[in-house]
Structures are given as structure tokens and as C-alpha cells.
Design a protein that fits this description.
Radius of gyration: 27 Å
Oligomer: single chain
Number of helices: 30
Largest sheet: 7 strands, parallel
Strand content: 5-15%
Number of strands: 17
Number of domains: 4
Helix content: 40-55%
CATH class of the largest domain: Alpha Beta
Structural class: alpha/beta
CATH architecture of the largest domain: 3-Layer(aba) Sandwich
Distance between the termini: 61 Å
Shape: globular
Bound molecules: adenosine-5'-diphosphate, zinc ion
Length: 618
């Protein structure tokens, strides 16, 4: 086929106003910080490199210019599932969007290509491997292109977890399409990756737009593990009953068990890990996206490409390996900007296990050193007694001047105590027993237990035997956990959790320096949810009219099922809530609701007005 013949010059001029597009198409009131600047830059033909946290509103940064500028915007996105969702959501808004990827057959692909050539598309999503095919590039040269958007741009970084070699080829766009503005977007924070993106994508002249990393609507909470299953159930029951959430576990086994535990308690909880067959995995992911109130229990295999906006909580039953992983995983909560919880329990065994995995792993010394530093930072966050958000943001090079008021350490400041003597006893006990024993045994020695193992090994005669009766076994556990977390003790990489002294512990052992330890807060049935006074209230807490809420949800669900899209593609929870709250009486009142644009007003306005009337009559 001769593409040149098909191509028609589109007379569309860019006389549209970005603000107007935002109101009319997306139904939103105002741009978020930076969005307006980024959009102006692109509309005026400039390049941009955008760093914004998950949920910050990156998509709008290219979707609005795509509608304002003449031609088709090409969006390069590595995740096919995400691509399909985005296109479905755009179509709902009345935007002409399509995708090109490996899931389509020849005819579908040809139809899409034709639509591109005849200028019928506002946006075309394309997988990177598809884009760099000579055939596709040739096609693009004959079409009218408004801009290139490179999503998940950190995939170009060879150091990241998500490296994709196809992304390296994308620098060709700069040379082959010098007049087409390009925007690269990522949520990955660090400076090195940012530089790499700019260099490898030939975006060295692009303006950088870096927004803060804070996710103020996420409440961070980390507690010592006592009875993980019970803690999880209590947390969900007290704070997120009926909400959609993700529970992360390290092993497949634990995923299955936890999913079963939650199911037995009446929750819709579905497992997700690499050991499930592809069909089950796809089905569980699909239900998570489409149904209300589903909890997915998963290994880290789950999450890439999930941009469900209304995930209300992310719970970790195991410690992530780094703050990057923690931030990425917890970041899947609350993309819609509504209050959400990042909840985690962790204990000494987690610390020991991760340290051992790391030391026992393949990889050269440099690699291990980097990994060790990452784990240290993660543990630092767990043990910190000041604001957790400040620690997190500082790690990513961002500063928060004041404590946030929306993390557990701000809401319930943990007490500290002078641990100098206890620490000396603990370290000395490790030394006296030959650095061959795990924490349970060490605590038994400290507390003067008369169990058989001790008697057999003759440790009732060491000088540290029975010198620690002033603390409970749990208190000692907390002491040891903090010593391991802070690198004064390490777990023997060869085996069985035996604790050994590190070089770093010497001044402590000698009693030369002071040390403050964290007093683990007493776990209450429903911990943490204090009234923070920050005015962040969960949607669920604000709903006084439960039947009304359920009726609107049902209305949304049936529309979603009819269309074969997830409910949030019809309306987000926040929009639904506003409808319930404001009870619009007419289409024009409905148009005032945030998230109701022209297309959705026309398609769903009447249906929801009818649902409201029925509620009134009921
Ligand atoms: P990101 O890709 O950065 O993770 P999204 O583009 O998915 O974030 O946006 C997150 C959510 O915020 C979406 O539900 C989106 O509709 C909403 N959003 C984005 N910009 C605005 C805005 N200006 N006003 C209201 N909601 C917005
Ligand atoms: Zn805080």
C-alpha cells in the first residue's frame, strides 16, 4: 500500500484552548501544578521531560496537547494492558484513540493504520517494539504527527528494573522527526536515571518539569509484626472494609494462604503470582479492575501497569528490598488523590531473611554494597522515630519542611528510651555465646531460661546468663531487631539466623556511646487512625447515605458491564461521591460535577439523574 497516497493534510488549526479542552473533554476544573506549564510547552512545539509521582496526572500532560495540536499524538507505552485501558478510557471521553500492538490481528492493525493516515485519530498508543519497525516508522513519516509521548521513560535506563532495549531505539525519533515535539514521562525519581533519560532519548534540550514526590493522600504506617494475619484482618476490618486493596507478600505460598485467610473472613480476595497459570492470573487481574471491593494478594509480580485509581490500601506483610520498591508498591494506592493507606508490618525475622538473601546472592561486591545500602535505607524508614514521609522524600532528593501529620510516627509519636545498657548486654551475650546462635536462644540466655539447649551447651555459666530479666522477651526482640536493622549485628549468611557482631558495634559493646532505642507502640485492635486534623477524610467515612452510594455504584457497574470496561472508566469514586453529595437535578447541574465532561454527560447524565430520582422516591 502506498501510504503517501492515503495521507491527507489536515486543515485542523490549533485554535483550541487547553483550559477549554480540560473542562469540556475531561470535565475537570483546573490544571494541577505543572500540568499547565508542560502543556503550554508542548503546544508551542517544545520538548519536555516530566518527572511526576504516580497519580500526579502525567497522562493529561500529553492528552490535552494531543487534542489541541493538529495531527495525531503517538504515545509509546510498554504495557499492553495499560494501553488498552487508557484507550478505553479516552474513548469514553469521546476522544479518538486507538492502539497498535501485538495483540491485534492483521486486519485490525490495517484499519488502525488507515485511520492514522487519514487523520482520524487524536492519539495512537504504540508498543516500543512496534514503533521501531521500519514499516511503522515509514507510516509515521507519511502521517501528520502532533507529538511523541514516551511513557515510562525510565525503561531506557539500563540500571533500572524495567530496562527495555527497544527504548534505546527511541532516540531515532529526535533525528527522524526533528520538528515534532517530544515529551518523556516517568515517576522514577533519582537524578542519575533522569540524566540517562535525557541523554538516551536525545532530550538534552528539553525543559525539565520536576514535581515533588510527595503523595500527601497516602498515610504511611509501619508496625512491628506480632501476629501478622490478625493484624492484617484488624486493619482491613477497622479501616478498609469493602475497599479495594493490594496485599503484598514475598512468597507464593504466603500469597495463597493469605488470600484464603481473607476469603474465609468474607472478603473477595484473589491470589496473584507467577506460579498461577496465565489464565487465572489474567482473570484475577481483570476482576480486580472490574469489580468493586476486590483485594488482590500478590507477590511483586503484580502491579506493573495497574493504574486503577481507587486502590484504597496497599498492605505489606513482608519488607520490600528497597525504598524504591516500597515507594513504587505503596504508590499504587490512591492515584485518584483520595485518602489511602500504605500499611506494613515487619519483624526481626524479615530483617534477618532479607540480609541473608542479600549476602547469599550472586553478584559482585559493588552490587552487594549498593543493595546493602538500599536495604539499610528501607530499615531506616522502619525504625525511624520522626516523620516517615520526611525520610522517604529526603531519600528521593525532595524535602518536606514540616513533619507531615499523616504518617503513624506523626500521629502517634513513638517514645524512645536509653538503650545503652540493654544494648551492651545484648551484644555481649552474642559475643559470649560464640556468635553461633539465633535471637530466641540469645534472649533465653539473657533472661536466664533453664531450657535444655542452654544447659547442654553450658551457657548458664557465661557472664551474660540471666542478666536481662528487666526486659520481656518481646522487648529484647525489639532490641535485637533494631541492632540488626541498624547494622550493629548481622545474620550469618551461611545459616540459620545466627547473629554476629559487626565492626560497627564496637563502641556500643564497650559502652562508649549512647544509643536511643524506639519503644514499639502497643498494638491496639485498630491502630493508627487518629484524627489527624489534616482534613483528610476517607470517602467511605464521608458517606452517610449508604443505600444511595450502593445504588449509584450499582448503576455505574451495570453501565461498565454493558460497555465491558472497569467501573472507574465510567466515573471515578470521587465523581460518584460528588453526584451523591450534590444531587444534581438537571443535566446542566450534572455538568458542574468534577469528572463529568461533555461526552460522559451525554452518555450517562440521564441514567444517573434517573438513579437519583429513584433514590428520592424510595
Ligand atoms: P499518573 O499517570 O501520573 O500516575 P494519571 O495520569 O493516571 O497519573 O492521573 C491520576 C488521576 O488524576 C487520574 O484519575 C486523572 O484523571 C486525575 N487527574 C489528572 N489531572 C487532573 C486534574 N487537573 N484535575 C482532576 N483530576 C485530574
Ligand atoms: Zn509524618
Amino acid at each position: 500500500m502506498d501510504f503517501a497516497q492515503l495521507s491527507t493534510e489536515r486543515p485542523r488549526v490549533s485554535d483550541q484552548d487547553p483550559e477549554e479542552v480540560l473542562h469540556r473533554v475531561f470535565g475537570y476544573e483546573t490544571f494541577r501544578p505543572l500540568q499547565g506549564d508542560i502543556i503550554r510547552e508542548l503546544v508551542n512545539g517544545g520538548d519536555a521531560l516530566v518527572l511526576m509521582p504516580t497519580g500526579g496526572g502525567k497522562s493529561l500532560c500529553y492528552q490535552v496537547p494531543a487534542l489541541v495540536r493538529a495531527g495525531t499524538a503517538i504515545v509509546i507505552s510498554p504495557l499492553i494492558a495499560l494501553m488498552q485501558d487508557q484507550v478505553a478510557a479516552l474513548k469514553e471521553l469521546g476522544v479518538k484513540a486507538a492502539f497498535l500492538n501485538s495483540t491485534m490481528d492483521f486486519e485490525q492493525a490495517r484499519d488502525t493504520e488507515n485511520a492514522l493516515m487519514t487523520g482520524e485519530l487524536d492519539l495512537l498508543y504504540c508498543a516500543p517494539e512496534r514503533l521501531i519497525q521500519p514499516r511503522t516508522l515509514d507510516l509515521l513519516h507519511h502521517a501528520s504527527i502532533s507529538l511523541f509521548a514516551i511513557d515510562e521513560a525510565h525503561c531506557v535506563s539500563q540500571w533500572g528494573h524495567d530496562f527495555r532495549s527497544d527504548y534505546l531505539e527511541l532516540s531515532r525519533l529526535a533525528h527522524e522527526f526533528p520538528d515534532v515535539p517530544r515529551i518523556a514521562l516517568t515517576a522514577t525519581a533519582d537524578e542519575r536515571t533522569r540524566k540517562e533519560i535525557a541523554e538516551r532519548l536525545s532530550l538534552t534540550d528539553a525543559r525539565h518539569f520536576i514535581s515533588g514526590f510527595d503523595r500527601p493522600n497516602i498515610q504511611y504506617r509501619i508496625s512491628p509484626k506480632t501476629n501478622a494475619n490478625k493484624q492484617l484482618l484488624d486493619f482491613i476490618k477497622a479501616e478498609h472494609d469493602g475497599d479495594c486493596g493490594i496485599v503484598y507478600c514475598l512468597s507464593r505460598n504466603k500469597v495463597d494462604n493469605t488470600a484464603k485467610l481473607l476469603s474465609d473472613k468474607g472478603y473477595t480476595a484473589l491470589p496473584y503470582h507467577a506460579g498461577l497459570n496465565a489464565i487465572d492470573r489474567a482473570r484475577h487481574q481483570e476482576r480486580f479492575l472490574r469489580e468493586d471491593g476486590v483485594i488482590i494478594v500478590a507477590t511483586i509480580a503484580f502491579g506493573m501497569g495497574i493504574d486503577k485509581p481507587d486502590v484504597r490500601f496497599v498492605a505489606h506483610l513482608d519488607l520490600p528490598k528497597s525504598l524504591e520498591a516500597y515507594y513504587q508498591e505503596t504508590g499504587r494506592a490512591g492515584r485518584d488523590g483520595k485518602p489511602s493507606t500504605a500499611w506494613m508490618v515487619y519483624g526481626l525475622q524479615d530483617v534477618i531473611k532479607l540480609r541473608q538473601m542479600l549476602e547469599g546472592s550472586m553478584g559482585n561486591d559493588h552490587f552487594k554494597r549498593v543493595e546493602r545500602q538500599k536495604l539499610d535505607a528501607m530499615l531506616g524508614l522502619c525504625e525511624v522515630t520522626s516523620c516517615r514521609r520526611q525520610v522517604l522524600l529526603r531519600y528521593f532528593g525532595d524535602t518536606l519542611e514540616q513533619p507531615c501529620g499523616n504518617c503513624d510516627t506523626c500521629l502517634n509519636p513513638p517514645e524512645t528510651w536509653d538503650g545503652k545498657v540493654a544494648v551492651q548486654k545484648a551484644l555481649s551475650c552474642v559475643f559470649r555465646t560464640g556468635q553461633r546462635f539465633g535471637v530466641t536462644y540469645l534472649i533465653d540466655v539473657l533472661r536466664g531460661s533453664e531450657n535444655e539447649r542452654i544447659l547442654q551447651s553450658g551457657h548458664q555459666t557465661v557472664s551474660t546468663y540471666g542478666i536481662g530479666t528487666e526486659l520481656s522477651a518481646n522487648d529484647w526482640k525489639s532490641v535485637f531487631r533494631q541492632l540488626v536493622a541498624n547494622g550493629y549485628l548481622r545474620a550469618d549468611p551461611e545459616g540459620y539466623g545466627a547473629l554476629q557482631l559487626t565492626e560497627q558495634c564496637r563502641p556500643l559493646l564497650k559502652g562508649e556511646v549512647a544509643i536511643q532505642l524506639r519503644k514499639d507502640p502497643v498494638v491496639k485492635a485498630s491502630s493508627g487512625r487518629g484524627s489527624s486534623g489534616s482534613g483528610r477524610r476517607r470517602i467511605a467515612d464521608q458517606i452517610t447515605d449508604k443505600p444511595g452510594w450502593e445504588a449509584l455504584r450499582a448503576c455505574r457497574k451495570s453501565l461498565a458491564d454493558e460497555k465491558g470496561v472497569p467501573p472507574y472508566v465510567i466515573f471515578h469514586d470521587a465523581t460518584l461521591f460528588e453526584i451523591l453529595d450534590k444531587k444534581p437535578n438537571s443535566l446542566s447541574e450534572m455538568a458542574e460535577i468534577n469528572g463529568v465532561g461533555a461526552a460522559k454527560l451525554e452518555k450517562y447524565g440521564e441514567t444517573f439523574l434517573a438513579a437519583l430520582r429513584e433514590l428520592d422516591g424510595a
